[in-house]
Amino acid sequence: MKKYISIMMLCAAPLLANAQGAFDALQMSQDELRGTSRFQSMAGAFGALGGDVSVMNQNPAGIGVYRSSDVSLTMDLDFQSSKVDGMSSADTQTKFNLNNVGYVGAIKLNSETMPNLNVGFSFNRNKSFHRHYQGGMNGIKSSLTNYVAALTNAGNWSEDDLAFGYNGHPYGANYNPYYDSAAPWMSILAYDSYLLNPVSNGFEGIAANGASGFAEFEVDEAGHTDEYSINFGGNIKNKVYWGLGVGIVDLDYDSYMYYGEGLDNAYYYHPDFDASGNMMETGAYETGYASYGFVNHLATRGTGYNFKLGVIVKPVNELRLGLAFHTPTYFEMKDLYKTISSFEMQDSYGTFDGEKEAGEAGYWDEYHYNLHTPWRVIASVAGVIGQKGILSLDYEWKGANTMRLCDDGDHEFTDLTDDIKNYFQATHTVRVGGEYRVSDNFSLRAGYSYQTSPVKDVVKDGVVSVITSGSNPAFQYDRSVQNITCGFGYRYKAFSLDMAYVHNYRQSNYHAYPAVTYQYGGTDFGNYAAVNDHNNRVSLTLGFRF
């Protein structure tokens, strides 16, 4: 009989009751290419250019370039497509967004040293979380129940910790493990759904004896991250442009995640039931077919703030250099979450099924905490080619390993900090964009950007076992993100119209549960799948300068 050992440290077990773990923090810290159509059509390579309201979310020194006031409105239409490798079709959806609203007011100072001082206000949708994908895996040789058994054994939990009370229960007939036990909800749900079998030194999953079958999963995400920015900027002798900004960020995220398995030759306990359907003390262990699934609902709400500092230097008219620093966004967060397990067992002894739910406060459990997103540094260079062309290049460093999770008193969870450092690395993003002025009124634009993965190879290769939190063992991450962009702009006197097309190609991994190491050697990497997103966006910006 196979025995399982979890790579997870025992000290991490208390954190499993929290709704947020390292990969949840990564999910909430994401952003994407958003802003005005001009900004998007050049792939966001504006760190050294300025003169666009989107720079308030990138390099606030860009508003110092303005010589006149500007107001603009951006709308876009997203055509999203997500496909799991091995599936014959993709999941698609279409979303309309009010992407950006901005205003820059230019205040002339009539000074040779500082000709103008500008102030800017903007609303920007930094991230849309909308995404839906689903898939299946045939011939699986591993099972979520084996992972939960390893997790339960790591905490040295007993049957008495996981089972509901009854007459003769050591903790009393009114004992409810969801309220009275510190054991992980995943362990409680699995045990009370007959997915864990007690053995002499702990627990085993119902697939521990070699059961095989299929798995299916579905992920449905929604929500957004919006930022409201206030910026001040100016220039010194039209050579050095500076900017300071503060952002107020609103986060709204909802997810539905389902994972289920159907196993042949599963080994589980089949209880006896009386004529009224009540479980009796008698029963037997049987080998048969078992199907079960877990549904996890999560609703996250957060508000936070950040600061930005930037500078642009123009040593000659043909060359501009930019540098910007972004502090973390300091979020106050609230999670509402619940988990439901369902099961059905079929064997020669008969068929039985049921459903269990984890969640306090009636339907949902609630958890409050603070999140500090990564630090960011953006270095930029741009060249002006005569009176016709612009070529711009940005490099962005984003320290995913600098994220921090804290309690609602802002006391750091040091174990989660260690997880963040072990799992994540800095992402590197390169953006290049160009603009060519066909005439005084009409311009063409194009761009490209590439972002590396924030996840270390030791996680991708299963060398480090991931610790998840709450009752959801699934996690996902990006392997790479690319944007191919183009667009045009039309100017007539004070009015402007810009359009952009963005093709976003995102490669990511979905893991149903973390890796588990066997006592006899070898690692079960769990059931996972590659997901590819091909998203297309068309945006329109209307502007007016005065």
Share of β-strand residues: over 45%
Question: How many domains would you count in the coordinates?
Answer: 1
Mean pLDDT: 88
Q: How are the strands of the largest sheet arranged?
A: 2-3-4-8-9-10-11-15-16-18-19-20-21-24
* Cα end-to-end separation: 78 Å
What name goes with the CATH superfamily? Answer: Outer membrane protein transport protein (OMPP1/FadL/TodX)
Question: How do the strands and helices of this protein lay out in sequence?
Answer:
Layout: E1 4-5, H1 22-28, H2 37-41, E2 70-84, E3 91-108, E4 116-128, E5 131-140, H3 144-154, H4 159-162, H5 177-180, H6 185-192, E6 196-199, E7 202-205, E8 212-236, E9 240-273, E10 279-316, E11 319-326, E12 330-347, E13 350-358, E14 365-372, E15 376-385, E16 389-399, E17 404-407, H7 414-423, E18 426-437, E19 442-452, H8 457-460, E20 475-492, E21 495-511, E22 516-518, E23 523-524, E24 528-545
Antiparallel strand pairs: 1-22, 2-3, 2-24, 3-4, 4-8, 5-8, 6-7, 8-9, 9-10, 10-11, 10-12, 11-15, 12-13, 12-14, 14-17, 15-16, 16-18, 18-19, 19-20, 20-21, 21-24, 22-23
Structural descriptors:
single chain, 546 residues, mainly beta, Porin, 14-stranded antiparallel beta barrel, 3-stranded antiparallel sheet, 10% helix, disordered N terminus
